[in-house]
Amino acid sequence: MARIVIIGGGTAGLAVAARLRRAGQSDITIIEPSARHFYQPLWTLVGGGTVAREATVQPEARYMPQGVRWIRDSVAELAPERRSVTTAGGSTIDYDFLVVASGLEMDYEKIPGLREALAGEGVSTNYSYDLAPKTWRAISSFRGGVALFHMPGTPIKCPGAPQKIMYLAADHFRRKGISRDARVIYGSATPSIYGVPQFAAVLNGVLERYGIDARFNHELVEIRPEKREAVFRNTKTSDGEQVVIPYDLMHVAPPQRAPEFVRKSALADPEKREGWLKVDKHTLRNPDYPEVFALGDVTNTPNAKTGAAAARQAPVAVENLLAAIAGKEPAARYDGYIACPIVTAYGKMLLCEADYTGKPAPSFPFLDTFRERYDMWLLKRYGLPWAYWNFILRGRSVPFLRAREVAQLAGARAESQYARP
After folding, report:
1. Known catalytic residue: 340?
2. Would you state the CATH architecture of domain 107-255?
3. Residue 395 to residue 236: CA distance in whole angstroms
4. Which residues pair with 242 in a beta bridge?
5. Residues of CATH 3.50.50.60 domain(s) within the chain?
6. What is the dihedral of CA 383, 387, 389, 395, to 10 degrees?
């Protein structure tokens, strides 16, 4: 029996646990199988050859709040009707209150040929700690041909990631003088480059600058690794016309879904085929089981799944959970804030921020964040990781510092420890 059970020791789970401990709560249990904690937003730069993957990982134990019971196991069954969680090892933990921050899982089998392609040469993904270095090997050894970058139409974590690595690759090809021999294609199931018009206008200019062939409304349905072909379905045509694109290099964003124990539980949103956990989009409370809260990538909130969203949700979830513990109605509200730092070149980044209104929600009102900036690149490379490890995971508010100031505190310099392309 535990007063509060938290499923997941990622960004959202650790931030919530730390804030609960700071609020004086005890009898908290975290269920998390991994001994390693990853800062995944830097995997784009691992794939771009400017960060070593080892710089993105720390021991999970280092960030586990004192006084929290850690069960190193995965969840096999979630039974909110019984207020219990069963682990893969066979333990059953009953709870008074539950926080689900389990993240999501890759659905590799959804696209025929995807696993086989990732196991071979020429195809990689930055959505994996093990495979992100392979992305850089493919980009750095590319000498010409078709470089294909894929974006699915279903919700994924960090939906800007597929185009980030595309821009870094295109910039690398330009720096190496092989742009004329490279044809960069963006095969995206989405209808446009970005959902917020103000940012889309900038990114459309980036596409034009690199001469990228953007194929929107193209859903990837199969990969034929033996032929190095990707098969897309054109969703704008009445018959779903199939388009076959040969590739020499390909980056894939795997389809993603809620973990199986969420999909099979009474907490899953029946209207979402990926099984996202149902919550009130403002209070982050499940409407059917008021003792259950959820945040991060696992939820059905109608906005992008980003680390910034999880960080902004954590204090809201904690405040509302504390209210529920006290027998009060949750009053804190999450406004849907997300941030998507889109690197557009080595040394340039566009910081896309929005909320549930679909309008920009800038955090740096004194800076023009509607253009590509070098200081935003420093924020991505140095400032945000520093804030993540030292503040967000510790349940503390991030100090409002300019990107250059954060970079100086972190001992940053413009060049990476690796030779920049």
Report:
1. yes
2. 3-Layer(bba) Sandwich (3.50)
3. 45
4. 233
5. 2-106+257-325, 107-255
6. -170
158 is catalytic: yes
Question: Which of these is catalytic: 46, 131, 158, 351?
Answer: 158
- pLDDT tens sequence for the chain (421 residues): 889 999 999 999 999 999 999 999 999 999 999 999 999 999 999 999 999 999 999 999 999 999 999 999 999 999 999 999 999 999 999 999 999 999 999 999 999 999 999 999 999 999 999 999 999 999 999 999 999 999 999 999 999 999 999 999 999 999 999 999 999 999 999 999 999 999 999 999 999 999 999 999 999 999 999 999 999 999 999 888 999 999 999 999 999 999 999 999 999 999 999 999 999 999 999 999 999 999 999 999 999 999 999 999 999 999 999 999 999 999 999 999 999 999 999 999 999 999 999 999 998 878 899 999 999 999 999 999 999 999 999 999 887 444 444 444 444 444 333 334 3
Cβ partners under 8 Å of residue 226, min gap 6: none
CB 351 within 8 A of CB 376: yes
Which numeric CATH code is attached to 2-106+257-325? 3.50.50.60
Q: Which two tokens stand for residue 47?
A: 């794939």
Q: Given 147, 294, 340, 351, which residue is catalytic?
A: 340
- pTM of whole model > 0.90? yes
